[in-house]
DNA sequence: CTGGGGATGGGGCCC
DNA sequence: GGGGCCCCATCCCCA
């Protein structure tokens, strides 16, 4: 099982980003691609913009992810964190309607305390003076309003109990915040080529891309001395020197240097009933 | 049509 | 926790 399949892929029909859309900032990618204003100033150093030099609506580590809440028990008042994306990148998801007094926490790592939550719930709810009757089934904390409880669960207990972090740009979920942040980069594409403007999710991807401009090919085949810019491509090339290829057809035992070639072979009809 | 190269995406691992 | 790297995969293009 390839590791890439551990998380489902379903961006859209075209798996590759349509870089032609970078210039217009239109289409489905416009909220994740940030072209550095310093794009063409110098060459050839890659530009890996820091968050502060991104546009005001750019990627904010605090605002681009949300902890997941159980799908089987959606809170009322449209509290689901997956109920739609912000209209522009970097905007915090709109607060729950019943929590209009809550402040914008973007840019602040410190979550509000439970006491603050309860106080805010009381302030925002005229019925909050009543006895606290909404209890968290995970930590037994009580809240006077359902909205207070819902917010508490969304921010703390559910996320902690499930250890689940879901992307706000797609519906992928990860068990760690670090994995989610790494994934988020595939949406925000913070690494921009100064030469052509293409954006990449990681610096080393950009470095590999820059080799296409410079012509640098640091990986050489020990058999034929052919050079490659990418190690993976060299590895694939090495298969061509091997008598026994890595990928074998189950039916005819023919071997192929690449998985894609095996797939083509299978789709061409070898593996249909003979 | 097949085989191979080029370019790129993305999760995991290690430091 | 983040960066760099590894490894695998895929798409596109061309000979």
Automatic annotation (TrEMBL):
Keywords: Developmental protein, DNA-binding, Metal-binding, Nucleus, Repeat, Repressor, Transcription, Transcription regulation, Zinc, Zinc-finger. Residues 134-161, 165-188, 191-218, 219-246, 247-274 form the C2H2-type domain. The keyword DNA-binding applies. InterPro entries: Snail/Krueppel_Znf (IPR050527), Znf_C2H2_sf (IPR036236), Znf_C2H2_type (IPR013087). Residues 79-90 have a biased composition (Low complexity). SMART domains: ZnF_C2H2. Residues 79-122 are annotated as: Disordered. Signal peptide: none annotated. It is found in: Nucleus. The keyword Nucleotidyltransferase does not apply. Belongs to the snail C2H2-type zinc-finger protein family. This is Zinc finger protein SNAI2. The gene is SNAI2.
